[in-house]
Specification:
CATH class of one domain: Alpha Beta
Number of strands: 28
CATH topology of one domain: Double Stranded RNA Binding Domain
Helix content: 40-55%
CATH superfamily of one domain: Classic Zinc Finger
């Protein structure tokens, strides 16, 4: 048994080799490049690099056989004869294609015997195993942080040096790690190899797919230890914790309102302090202040309903609609109850806005006339008074209105004797 890490061995030679990991002495060093190894066999295998007879004329890298050199030269010639039948991506070697195909099949043949986690490549499993062995022999000379492999230390050292050797040939953005560059290239190619088997939605990262799957499974592994509310993403839990801590670091420079997230501050500015509507619907021409509002609106035209109930066949356009359905129809979830009037709400935000009415709090202030309101929706409706833009049109007479409620009320009252105008108006719209 090792006296340092308590690891056990069945053979003495294995124990002697392992012991060198803890003692900086007695390592086997290469006489040509000074690289060090734990065992003599590893050193002898490494020496073949220096004694290789087949050098590459492009980069100087040496190989022990001509066939290995020929395979390597394909990386310089960019010849990639092996094509993926699913996404069309090409590879220089069949083994690389075989590893890539596991992305589409979901196959992870290399299993960790400690935590049963699966990996597509054996090298990824070997790197993962250092998490359990906790052996970190390679130390950064600048920040003293330790790493399990020299390659990880080399990548880490680029944080201090600022070196970014991997550059995108399209936008010239630079990266410190080749894997980050490969992932970035999907922005330009549009490749989304990770597909959801439920709704066929594609993602650039496997982590994004795993997070998305929780929409269908309802899994929420991140729980708040204060109120026990659960979340599907750790970032959402971190943002939620600011509710209990009262932390609102993002302040609006126009009305001094504070927010727990920077995205909420940007949304507040666009909705409360701006009348700009840069996002236009390609189907009906309606304009919106944010891209998120536009995406929700487009689902009306496409009839897309990405949120499905796992108990029945109902589907919904919005996540809030699904949550309301689960609470009312299947009694799944937690109601938020007002402690004053006992009215129930499906979200904490709805309860918060409702409590403003009991406390007579009006945090949403109009930047034009300084009139205040309880909710952002009320402020948004009020701001139409100051706007000259009329986006709602009557389908009978073509009259324009600022507010959706007004055009609905007018439409019901619009007299039938003006239907002759419909043809003229429709011709104008069709043009």
């Amino acid at each position: 048994m090792c006296t340092v890490c308590d690891k056990r061995f069945t053979e003495k030679c294995s124990f002697n080799t392992h012991r060198r990991r803890h003692t900086e002495d007695n390592w086997y060093s290469c006489t040509q490049c000074e690289k060090r190894f734990h065992s003599l066999n590893s050193l002898m295998s490494h020496m073949n690099v220096h004694s290789s007879k087949y050098p590459c004329t492009e980069c100087g890298k040496c190989f022990q056989s001509n066939s290995a050199l020929m395979r390597h030269k394909q990386s310089h010639s960019r010849e990639k004869p092996f094509e993926c039948s699913v996404c069309g991506k090409r590879f220089a070697e069949s083994s690389h294609l075989a590893v890539h195909s596991r992305i589409h099949s979901g196959e992870r043949p290399y299993k960790c015997h400690v935590c049963d986690m699966g990996f597509r490549q054996s090298g990824h499993l070997n790197t993962h195993m250092t998490v359990h062995t906790a052996e970190k022999l390679f130390e950064c000379s600048i920040c003293d942080k330790r790493f399990s492999t020299s390659s990880v230390l080399a990548v880490h050292s680029r944080i201090h040096s600022g070196e970014k050797p991997y550059k995108c040939h399209v936008c010239h953005k630079a990266f410190s790690h080749s894997g980050n560059l490969n992932t970035h290239m999907r922005v330009h190619t549009g490749e989304k190899p990770y597909k959801c088997h439920v709704c066929d939605m594609g993602f650039r990262h496997s982590g994004d797919l795993n997070t998305h799957m929780r929409v269908h499974t309802g899994e929420k592994p991140y729980k708040c230890h204060v109120c026990h509310k659960a979340f599907s993403q750790s970032a959402h839990l971190n943002s939620h914790m600011r509710v209990h801590m009262g932390a609102k670091p993002y302040k609006c420079s126009l009305c001094d309102k504070s927010f727990g997230q920077s995205s909420h501050l940007q949304t507040h500015k666009s909705r409360a302090h701006s009348n700009r509507r840069p996002h236009q619907c390609p189907h009906c021409g309606k304009q919106f202040k944010t891209n998120a509002e536009l995406k929700l609106h487009v689902r009306i035209h496409t009839d897309a309903k990405p949120y499905s109930c796992r108990h029945c066949s109902f589907t919904f356009r919005r996540l809030q609609q699904l949550k309301r359905h689960l609470l009312k129809s299947h009694n799944e979830g937690t109601w938020f109850v007002c402690d004053i009037c006992e009215k129930k709400f499906i979200s904490h935000s709805e309860l918060k806005y409702h409590s403003y009415r009991h406390a007579d709090v009006m945090p949403y202030v109009c930047c034009e006339c300084r009139k205040s309101f309880c909710t952002a929706a009320e402020l948004k409706s009020h701001q139409l008074v100051h706007s000259v833009y009329k986006q709602f049109c009557c389908g009978k007479c073509g009259k324009l209105f600022k507010d959706e409620y007004c055009v609905k009320r007018h439409f019901d009252r619009c007299s039938n004797d003006r239907l002759g105008i419909i043809g003229v108006f429709n011709q104008h719209v069709s043009k």
